[in-house]
Design a protein that fits this description.
Oligomer: single chain
Number of strands: 12
Strand content: 15-25%
Number of helices: 16
Largest sheet: 4 strands, antiparallel
Strand order of the largest sheet: 9-10-11-12
CATH topology of the largest domain: Arc Repressor Mutant, subunit A
CATH superfamily of the largest domain: Winged helix-like DNA-binding domain superfamily/Winged helix DNA-binding domain
Helix content: 40-55%
Order of helices and strands: HHEHHEEHHHEHHEEHHHHEEEHHEEEH
CATH architecture of the largest domain: Orthogonal Bundle
Shape: globular
Distance between the termini: 40 Å
CATH class of the largest domain: Mainly Alpha
């Protein structure tokens, strides 16, 4: 089994959770390539917990400074990525996603002519550094006679982002806005090949399998296999349980056995892999993602394993652990230390 060579502990290292050599939000974002971004505030914590001493304001500043960008990327889901990687990732993963959306487009009554007209409207409304909320942007499209009811509006914006026209911009209170990608992030960064993506995935997520990389990247199995083969010289391979696990050199440090990590719901520690059984016992999967609905709850991780979930009670300003089994005295102490780190991240005087 994978546990024989400590796959979960190595993943905590490669993901810079238990030990980080990164100094800035932009640096950790570039190392991770991309992270899930459905939960905006959860994603901020995903980045901060990989940067010792980082506070929420540090991550928000990096976003405002346009070092980090949020848009739809791998598998057509929301991600954060670095300014230098966003275009390379779009060119690499978006064509297949857009091609696969043809059936959904027909169901929604959308076609290339409508998308082109929407792109004209969006460009006109955002040109010149303007930013609009989702409601404002869809209102502009609706006023032109194009229906944006049901899922059509979302799909129009989704398509525009994958085409490289728009991305998310600055916050408007608790709501995010849209901006033109070319204005928000001037063209920078080199082309991103499938081989480089494979190298960076296994460097920041390994040990992981080819199937994990296919799941995460959304690339075709043939392209992913070729990319891993080309990157083989930079990766170490280990066989376990009938699978081959690839990884790269890890930081020269590690975690204390008594350390616990409070991860947000969509953290890459779980979501970056097709097979999550090394870190999450399948019998507990229902607690983390009820009904397999795609909504992941925040998790408690200790010794490389998910041992429960947690939540924040904002009314009482406290964190509540929900372990799969009874907490030991050591786990209670570890949770208290982890909660203190989260408190410092939020810069609160008390939870």
């Amino acid at each position: 089994m994978a546990e024989k060579f400590g796959v979960t502990e190595k993943r905590l290292l490669s993901q810079r959770i238990s030990c980080s050599d990164c100094k800035t939000p932009g640096e950790i974002m570039a190392r991770l390539v991309a992270i899930q971004g459905q939960d905006y505030y959860g994603a901020l914590w995903s980045l901060a917990l990989r940067l010792p001493g980082a506070r929420v304001s540090d991550i928000e500043r990096a976003i405002a400074d346009r070092q980090i960008v949020r848009t739809w990327l791998m598998r057509g889901t929301l991600h954060f990525t670095s300014a230098g990687d966003v275009r390379g990732l779009l060119r690499l993963v978006a064509p297949r996603i857009l091609k696969g959306s043809a059936s959904r487009n027909r169901q929604l009554g959308l076609n290339e002519k409508i998308f082109a007209r929407c792109a004209e409207i969006i460009h006109k409304r955002l040109k010149g550094g303007h930013c609009l909320t989702r409601a404002e942007l869809l209102s502009s499209i609706s006023e032109s006679g194009i229906a944006v009811d049901a899922a059509r509006g979302y799909h129009i914006l989704w398509n525009s982002a994958l085409e490289g026209l728009i991305c998310f911009g600055p916050q408007a209170g608790r709501e995010q806005t849209f901006v033109l990608l070319d204005e928000w992030v001037p063209a920078c960064g080199a082309e991103l090949s499938a081989e480089e993506l494979a190298e960076r995935y296994f460097s920041s997520r390994g040990p992981a399998t080819l199937q994990d990389f296919v799941w995460w990247s959304g690339l075709k199995i043939t392209d992913a296999r070729a990319a891993v083969g080309s990157a083989g010289g930079t990766l170490a391979a280990e066989a376990a349980g009938g699978n081959t696990y690839y990884s790269a050199r890890l930081p020269r440090c590690g975690m204390q056995n008594s350390e616990m990590f409070l991860l947000p719901g969509f953290d890459e520690f779980l979501l970056a892999y097709k097979d999550r059984s090394a870190s999450l016992d399948p019998k507990h999967a229902e607690f983390v993602c009820p009904g397999g609905n795609g909504v992941f709850k925040p998790t408690m991780v200790m010794d490389g394993r998910v041992i429960g979930i947690w939540k924040r009670d904002s009314r009482k300003n406290t964190l509540i652990p929900i372990p799969f089994g009874k907490f030991t005295a050591g786990q209670e102490r570890a949770f208290a230390r982890a909660a203190e780190k989260y408190r410092e991240y939020l810069f609160l005087t008390g939870l």
